[in-house]
């Protein structure tokens, strides 16, 4: 039976137990407003002990359990980018909850308050709201951790379940080029791409006409391009952030074949010819046979390609500029408006399933749905 005593104007419980080594130990917790709250909390500890919980672990802090969970289940099993994400999330949790906050003390309301704070970007300077996707990913990682804590009998329920993630229209808005701007971009890059003068145009056109991720494009070797069958084989990426060389694709579904348009095929043939001529002149041999190694034998960074894209958008008088990743969104929006099958689009993007595609581009489908609804009613009215 837990003993309950009063300290000042607060109540505390104390539970004695025998640990796995046969030694008597105690679990104490204070700060309860009423005697009943302390009794109930002490009773919960006794129930956990009766069900086999190791009580010396029940008061583990959020940060200590996060570190333990990462060490056991995550560390060394993913890309360096993902490993960095774990550290970022850890910093965000510690900044809000502190280093001593016990995991079992976090309620659903506590977590919702954190999500509201994190989503609003109040930890940023200046304050800038985060996208729903970013918040959902953090919540998903913590949910997995808490599920393990439930199995370890440290907590009884998962406080991250059914959390409400506020939406910010601007933060969640997917940015893509309007049709006329998209056409101008494709026409300009395919016409003026040149290995020595306008090399970034090759990358920009490839991103726009395939919808591939930047790391996937940089990871292409000439053997990945099937000119006869008009296809590109995505089977690896290039780690442009940490410069470790070739890396795995984002997931299994990202290993895929992308059908190529005629204008992109012509562009890639031109690049191959110009690159080969430059290498002969320079006496250079690329053992990796990378498609997008420039005349200085470099693979340009994500920051550099975005800088080149911004300059080009200014030249073309594009009022709502996008990043290189926005070319992927533009590619998808164009295919959706052209009525291309969603299952094909999903496979082309390398999404794990079509639901991801539908979720990410839901606003585009809603717009298209209105057009389809009118076409449907017009057709029925003509009967």
TrEMBL record:
<dbReference type="InterPro" id="IPR010998">
    <property type="entry name" value="Integrase_recombinase_N"/>
</dbReference>
<dbReference type="InterPro" id="IPR013762">
    <property type="entry name" value="Integrase-like_cat_sf"/>
</dbReference>
<keyword id="KW-0238">DNA-binding</keyword>
<protein>
    <submittedName>
        <fullName>Tyrosine-type recombinase/integrase</fullName>
    </submittedName>
</protein>
<dbReference type="InterPro" id="IPR011010">
    <property type="entry name" value="DNA_brk_join_enz"/>
</dbReference>
<dbReference type="InterPro" id="IPR028259">
    <property type="entry name" value="AP2-like_int_N"/>
</dbReference>
<feature type="domain" description="Tyr recombinase">
    <location>
        <begin position="172"/>
        <end position="374"/>
    </location>
</feature>
<dbReference type="Pfam" id="PF00589">
    <property type="entry name" value="Phage_integrase"/>
</dbReference>
<dbReference type="InterPro" id="IPR002104">
    <property type="entry name" value="Integrase_catalytic"/>
</dbReference>
<comment type="similarity">
    <text>Belongs to the 'phage' integrase family.</text>
</comment>
<dbReference type="Pfam" id="PF14657">
    <property type="entry name" value="Arm-DNA-bind_4"/>
</dbReference>
<dbReference type="InterPro" id="IPR050090">
    <property type="entry name" value="Tyrosine_recombinase_XerCD"/>
</dbReference>
<keyword id="KW-0233">DNA recombination</keyword>
């Amino acid at each position: 039976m837990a003993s309950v005593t009063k300290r000042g104007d607060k109540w505390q419980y104390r539970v004695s137990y025998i640990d796995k080594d046969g030694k008597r130990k105690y679990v104490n917790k204070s700060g309860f407003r009423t005697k009943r709250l302390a009794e109930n909390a002490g009773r919960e500890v006794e129930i956990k002990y009766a069900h086999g919980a190791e009580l010396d672990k029940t008061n583990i802090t959020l940060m200590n359990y996060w570190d333990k969970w990462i060490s056991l289940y995550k560390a060394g099993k993913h890309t360096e980018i993902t490993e960095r994400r774990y550290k970022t999330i850890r910093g965000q949790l510690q900044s809000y909850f502190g280093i001593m906050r016990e995991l079992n003390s976090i309620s659903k309301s506590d977590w919702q308050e954190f999500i509201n704070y994190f989503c609003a970007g109040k930890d940023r300077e200046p304050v800038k709201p985060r996208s729903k996707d970013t918040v959902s990913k953090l919540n998903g990682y913590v949910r997995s951790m808490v599920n393990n804590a439930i199995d370890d009998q440290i907590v009884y329920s998962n406080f991250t379940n059914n959390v409400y993630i506020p939406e910010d229209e601007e933060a969640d808005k997917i940015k893509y080029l309007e049709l006329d701007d998209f056409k101008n971009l494709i026409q300009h890059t395919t016409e003026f791409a040149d290995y020595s003068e306008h090399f970034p145009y090759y990358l920009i056109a490839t991103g726009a006409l395939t919808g591939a991720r930047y790391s996937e494009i940089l990871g292409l070797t000439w053997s990945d391009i099937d000119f006869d069958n008009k296809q590109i084989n995505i089977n690896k990426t290039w780690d442009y952030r940490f410069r470790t060389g070739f890396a795995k694709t984002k997931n299994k579904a990202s290993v895929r074949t992308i059908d190529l348009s005629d204008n992109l095929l012509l562009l890639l043939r031109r690049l191959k010819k110009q690159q080969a001529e430059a290498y002969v002149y320079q006496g250079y041999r690329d053992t990796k046979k990378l498609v997008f190694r420039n005349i200085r034998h470099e693979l340009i960074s994500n920051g550099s390609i975005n800088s080149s894209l911004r300059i080009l958008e200014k030249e073309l008088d594009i009022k709502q500029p996008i990043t290189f990743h926005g070319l992927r969104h533009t590619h998808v929006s164009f295919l959706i408006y052209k009525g291309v099958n969603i299952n094909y689009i999903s496979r082309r993007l390398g999404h794990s399933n079509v639901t991801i595609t539908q979720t990410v581009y839901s606003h585009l489908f809603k717009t298209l749905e209105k057009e389809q609804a009118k076409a449907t009613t017009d057709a029925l009215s003509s009967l």
